[in-house]
Structures are given as structure tokens and as C-alpha cells.
């Protein structure tokens, strides 16, 4: 039963090789989707090119459905799948900072690695900034105290538990919502880009 | 549109492909994708190179060395090396390997570099506070319905849109 690594089908050494291959696929797809280019990423926030949104949400709904169905068929033990624990307030504040950093810097950490790999100098500066911040984080983490370690801590909490609905229902609503937003995104792109040409 | 003539994939196709990759990661390994955690390990390694005594005795940096393993003995490192290689290969095959800087027509290279650096600082710090970035929280946490990851993702879009107006000259 999956996940195979957690279930002891193979060890760390093998898993690192698999991680490397998965990473290659991840980087390849990001570059192919245009995520190695800051102007394309930033265009999301001016409604000119909503590729970031489309790729992100398609990824999420596809992976989400596959995880759900394989769990339903009994092929995957969801209890063994890593689910990020909820630390609500540090995640909200961290996300808020990252949104600002995204539109100021033009990348997120993953896309900056892809962009740097294809020769983008702005991505190298972004990465340097990220490394500086991570050093700064290590030196200041204790100042955050309970805000970082306890505020809004709910452990392993999933949306179906939050809403008290069956998982399948939550997934259904997310997929329907995503499809509606994709339709809206196509309309918005057309409107904005026609408007700027005339 | 310009972006389509350069051989980028249809975004929905890219999303389906990435969704399958993310699922395989969960299915085979039990974890999603990540990026910022590997960078944090790189920094921990640098701190250790500069001063092993400080790094290994420090509350925060010390936990990277606590089990006696190398900081690089972690799945994130291998995955992110793969991301670099995969990005490079895709760029190579598409003829997109080119040294340069991307920005809007009203901006200059040096201002772009300064903003990229500043943005990297804000984002790097935010990613640590949130315990993950767009890969580790939004994509991975989002697809397994992690509640905090959805709140995180929503906030990224809210503040990015709220800030966009003030830095518009950089991009459009």
C-alpha cells in the first residue's frame, strides 16, 4: 500500500533518486509553463496573464482528486501522507508577506530556481535575498515566541473537518469553484488585453 | 500573445502534468513538493562553515545538526537539485537559455535587481514564518486540503494584488 517510502518498500537512498527525478519533472514543467520569467509571473497581478492561477489550481485539483480516489480505492493510506499542520496566524502573516514579496521580487522560491537555471539575473538577486532572509529568520525566530509556535495551532486539520462535510463534497465544491474561476480567468484576460490594445 | 508564440505549454496542460507529478510524490514518497526548505538547509550549511561552534550550539541552527547527519542528507535537497536540472533542460530544449533580466518597459536593470533582492528578502522571511512557500504550502498543502495552507494561499493573492499597484512601473 502507498505511500511506498513510508511503508518501508525502499530506503532513503532510493527515495533521494526518486526525489531527484520528481524534481526534474517539477522544474521542467515550471519552465515550460513560463514560470522562469518574472514578467510573466507578475502579469498575473495586473490581470494580463493569469497563467500562474491556472497552472496552480489545475495542479491542485488534479493532485487532490488523484489522492482522494486512490485513498478511496484503498491503494493509498492517507494517514501516512504528510499534511502540513495548521499554524493559522503564522501562515496568514507569512502568506501576506509572501504576496508582497512576490510582486516586488517577481518570483517565489521555486520559480526563482528555475529562472536562475535558465540564466535570469533578476532570479539570482532574488535568490540571494531569500538566502539573506533565511539567515535572518534563524537569528530572529525566537523573537516570535508563541506567535510562531502556538498561535492558531490546530495540528493536522483538513478542510472537510473545518466545514464538517464529507471529503468528497469539499472536493466537489473546490473543483466546481476552480472550473468557474478558470472560465472567469479566460474572460478577464480577453477583456484586459483587448482593452490595452485599443 | 507573445507568451504563446514562444512555445510555452497550455497552462491547463502544464497544471495537469504538475498535478500528476505532485500526486506521484505523495503516492510514492508520502510528501509533496518543496523549495524554500532546501534553501534554508543551504544557509544552515553556510553558517556551519563559517562557525561550526556557533551553528551547532545555537538553538535554531543546532537542530539541523542534532542527529549527526549532514544538512544535505534530506529529500528536499535532492528534489530542488532536480528542479534546477529540470528547469535548465526545459530551457535548453526550448532555446530559452539566455543571460538576462526581465522587466517592464519603464524600468531599468539595476532597479529590477534591487527590487528582486528586496522581494527575495520579504518572501524568504515570509516563507519561513509560514513554514513553507508556494510549493510546500500552496501546492502540496492545498491538494491534501490542509486548512492553514488554504488560508496561506488566499493571503498570497490578497496582498500581491493589493501591492501590485505600487510597483506597477516595474512590470507594465
What key attributes describe this structure?
heterodimer, A: about 200 residues, mainly alpha, two-stranded antiparallel sheet, 2 strands, B: about 170 residues, 2 domains, about 70% helix, about 0% strand, globular, disordered N terminus
Topology record:
The complex is a heterodimer of chains A (198) and B (172).
Chain A: H1 12-32, H2 38-43, H3 51-72, E1 86-87, H4 88-105, H5 109-117, H6 121-144, H7 146-149, E2 153-155, H8 159-163, H9 167-197
Antiparallel strand pairs in A: 1-2
Helix pairs in contact in A: 1-5, 3-9, 5-6
Chain B: H1 2-5, H2 11-29, H3 36-50, H4 52-57, H5 59-62, H6 75-93, H7 109-129, H8 134-143, H9 147-164, H10 168-171
Tell me the total number of β-strands of chain B: 0
What is the assembly state of the chains in this entry? heterodimer
Helix/strand-derived class of chain B?
A: mainly alpha
Beta-strand share of residues of chain B? under 5%
Biggest interface:
A-B, 133 and 126 residues
> What is the mean pLDDT of chain A?
95
The total domain count of chain A is 1
Task: Indicate the overall shape of chain B.
Answer: globular
Order of helices and strands of chain B: HHHHHHHHHH
**Could you give the order of the helices and strands of chain A?**
HHHEHHHHEHH
**Largest sheet, spatial ordering of strands of chain A:** 1-2
Estimate the helix proportion of chain A, in percent: over 70%
Distance between the termini of chain B: 15 Å
What overall form of chain A do the CA principal axes indicate? globular
Helix content of chain B: 55-70%
**Mean model confidence by pLDDT of chain B:** 93
- What is the first-to-last residue Cα distance of chain A? 58 Å
Number of helices of chain B: 10
Q: Structural class of the secondary elements of chain A?
A: mainly alpha
